[in-house]
Amino acid sequence: MSADDETQFLVVVNHEEQYSIWPDDRELPPGWSAVRRGMTYAAALDHVERVWTDLRPRSARG
User: Fold this and answer.
1) Exposed, middle or buried, 24 (CB in 10 Å: 0-12/13-18/19+)?
2) Which domain holds residue 31?
3) Is 4 inside any structural domain?
4) Are 14 and 29 in contact (CB under 8 A)?
5) Fewer CB in 10 Å around end: N or C, the chain?
6) CATH value at residue 50
7) Within a 10 A sphere around the Cβ of 26, how many other Cβ atoms?
8) What pLDDT, in 10s, does the model give residues 6-20?
9) Is the residue at 60 inside a domain?
10) Which 3 state secondary structure label does DSSP give 3?
11) How far apart are alpha carbons 19 and 10 in whole angstroms?
12) Total tally of structural domains belonging to the chain
């Protein structure tokens, strides 16, 4: 996904601790919660890369 520098994004997480980047002006899908708001796409992607180090769903980490 590409975006201009003015578009704001948020970082979202679900109950399985999986992360995604979502446009700030859209309603979140069920099951997802915002953890960081008002970011550029690049900043949101950087945040996800830093915090989501184990890509397995929480239930699979056992």
Assistant:
1) middle
2) 9-55
3) no
4) no
5) C
6) 3.90.820.10
7) 9
8) 799 999 999 999 999
9) no
10) coil
11) 10
12) 1
Signed CA dihedral, 7, 51, 32, 1: sign only: positive
Residue found by looking up tokens 């796409």 in the block:
41
As a whole number, the mean pLDDT across the chain is 91
Placement of tokens 């953890």 in the chain? 35
Sheet holding 19-23, edge to edge: 19-23, 9-14, 32-39
**What is the pLDDT confidence band of residue 55, given thresholds at 50, 70 and 90?**
confident
Q: What is the DSSP string of 17-52?
A: --EEEEETTSPPPTTEEEEEEEE-HHHHHHHHHHH-
Phi and psi at residue 43, to the nearest 5°:
-65, -40
Radius of gyration of the chain (CA): 12
Q: Is 62 domain-assigned?
A: no
